[in-house]
Specification:
Helices cover 37% and strands 20% of the residues. The chain is an alpha/beta fold and 211 residues long. The strands form 2 sheets. It has an 8-stranded mixed sheet with strand order 3-2-1-4-5-6-9-10, sandwiched between helices. A two-stranded antiparallel ribbon has the order 7-8. β5 (85-88), α5 and β6 (119-122) form a beta-alpha-beta unit. The protein binds NADP nicotinamide-adenine-dinucleotide phosphate (NAP).
Length: 211
């Protein structure tokens, strides 16, 4: 099955490369089709001339665009999203990256209300794109937290995450995307405030295997 990635920036390019390396058939689109061609060539993915072309025949679609572009992309794709798993990587950051623009609800929940025929899974948003190529620390996989209301969709995204080297962790229903978006903001704030090199990633310590 094909994986479509909408957006060829930091996240889209890194995820496309990691997924292609793991053997997935990846199609990539961007706002500027020439950018998709350039990035797809380096990543081992197939460029698409439009978002609609990228999602055609794909079972999983990753939204790797700025939060401000999500509603436009969802509206543009419309019924082409029906029945698909939509992975929401976005973080609804303000212009200064110091706060979220959402209040009392996650961007992922808002998206799910807009595309009721699809299953939204929040994933990968807590990990800096630079870590996607080799998501390990001291030989141990980084944690990929997944939130979503459709168990089968979440399992599909868990398979994608583990295929590229993450340890997928079921974080609960889509309501938990609020926590995952805050977790991403915390990591961003920690790096900005402390002058860290934007490589830190979440890895739970202690017994985290079901007993
Ligand atoms: N950077 C990170 O480490 C990181 C980590 C986790 C989550 N995130 C989140 O992931 C999202 C993407 O971040 P990023 O750093 O990858 O951003 P970015 O480098 O600015 O890339 C954004 C991409 O979105 C594309 N795009 C914009 N509008 C589009 C449209 N209407 N249709 C198709 N493509 C469109 C752009 O196309 P063009 O290239 O043609 O301009 C660009 O390739 C953001 O919501 C961010 O908060 C980022």
């Amino acid at each position: 099955m094909r994986r479509a990635i909408i957006g060829a920036g930091n996240v889209g390019s890194s995820l496309a490369e990691a997924a292609a390396k793991a053997g997935h058939n990846v199609t990539l689109s961007a706002a500027h089709p020439a950018h998709a061609v350039e990035v797809a060539g380096k990543a081992g993915a197939t460029p698409a001339a439009s978002n609609a072309e990228a999602v055609e025949g794909a079972d999983v679609l990753v939204l790797a665009v700025p939060h401000a572009a999500v509603a436009e992309v969802a509206g543009e794709l419309g019924s082409a999203l029906a029945g698909k798993v939509v992975v929401d990587v976005t973080n609804p950051l303000d212009a200064a990256y110091t706060d979220l623009v959402t209040e009392g609800v996650s961007a992922a929940e808002v998206l799910q209300r807009e595309i009721t025929g699809s299953s939204v899974v929040k994933a990968f948003n807590t990990v800096f794109a630079a870590r996607y190529a080799n998501p390990t620390e001291n030989g141990s996989p980084l944690d990929a937290f997944l939130a979503g209301d459709d168990a089968a969709a979440k399992a599909t995204v868990a398979d994608l995450a583990s295929s590229i080297g993450f340890r997928p962790i079921d974080a609960g229903g889509l309501r938990m995307a609020r926590s995952l978006e805050e977790l991403a903001l915390l990591n961003i704030t920690l790096n900005a405030r402390n002058g860290w090199p934007w490589q830190s990633a979440w890895k739970l310590a202690g017994p985290t295997q079901a007993g």
